[in-house]
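FORM 7B: Structural annotation worksheet

SECTION A. Query
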Amino acid sequence: MKLYSYAVWLAYSKKKFDQMKRKSKPKQRCVSPLPTTTLSDVFKEAKSNSKRFSTPPPYRNKPHKNILGKTSTCNELNPLQKFRFVKGITKLRAKKETPWTRCLDNGGVKVTAVETTKSWIVNLSELYFGARFASGAHSRLYHGMYKNQPVAVKIIRLPDDDESGLMVARLQKQFTREATFLSHLRHPNVIKLAGACNKSPILFIITEYLSGGSLRTLLRKLDCSPLPLDNMISIALDVARGMEYIHSQGVIHRDLKSGNILFDANFCVKIADFGVACEEAHCAVFSDDAGTYRWMAPEMIKHKPYGRKVDVYSFGLLLWEMLTGAIPYEEMTPVQAAFAVVNKNLRPVIPADCPVVLRGLIERCWSTLPERRPEFAQIVKVLEQFKADLANGGTLKELQLLTSQDHKKRLLIWIEMLSFSKVGGFRPPTAKKL
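SECTION B. Predicted structure
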């Protein structure tokens, strides 16, 4: 009986073991057939080309050659090379293109001007931006390098929210004016154009960089004190020479003021900002973007026909600025100043210690009647006489002795001094009865 039970248990255990063994054994999958597709000879040739499938090393670890010819990594690059490297990486990583960077994609854009020349094509790969040193409502001024020369880059940003399109048209017109006039003007006392490009919504104007700042900044540094007389005459003479040339080219500046008179490293005067300039034959009487009220001639304020004598009026106020160190009508708003000039014939007060000859020049320049204002060619002759007398150890007070002692007669004498004789000199001033 026991033997029979043991045999049954043994058979049962063997059966269970076989079942467990069958469960643990993996199922045999069917073998996939070998591929029958044949590769083309072109694909085989491309697959065998190792360069096609090789991964280039990271750009940041790639050695560069510096100016001295030595290899260096990104951390050892000079600032200009680092700027180029960062600029490239930023462009690659940018997910969304912004209006301020769209203009940097192409290598060259031509200036929008009446006569486009190849000399004003801007190669943006040679333009490098530095720090911003000034800004306005729609423009920014940057230090920069262009063709290894220091420049000032003026960027005009066209607004996106201008539904009427008037502001966009106005800014484009100002850009075209400035680029056109600067591309044709060549004079030591006029700022030089290095290049310009028009790629909406960004407009570039690249000019020479003038490290001396503006005349307004100079007067502010002097704590609104007057300039020394010899320096004042020298600056005024350079401005008059530049304006004489500008007028000889048929151009009216229309915004002559201390903020637009710049100096280079050698303290040479440069006239800048031709954004509201116009051709004398085509100046719009009802233009709404011409000039600054504090320096604007009465006929311009009243929207009457005007000519180049409006710049002479502004020059008179410029002389007053250098004589006093102050801003014209500083205690008034620009609109109040314009109203007083037109309706009350208001002018700034000339200091009592101003030499009579200089006072007469200022008063002639800002005369209400344009025909009584002298030409810049005449102003240059007078200022050259002033400068020569000061250089010889004289003073402007000595020149007063050439005029009448009667204060009422000086304007008639100045008419003679500012008029040319047939031989190109001055008529000697003589006292006349009123």
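SECTION C. Observations
The CA atoms of residues 38 and 44 lie 10 Å apart. The chain has two domains: 76-208, 213-417.

SECTION D. Sign-off
Analyst initials: ____
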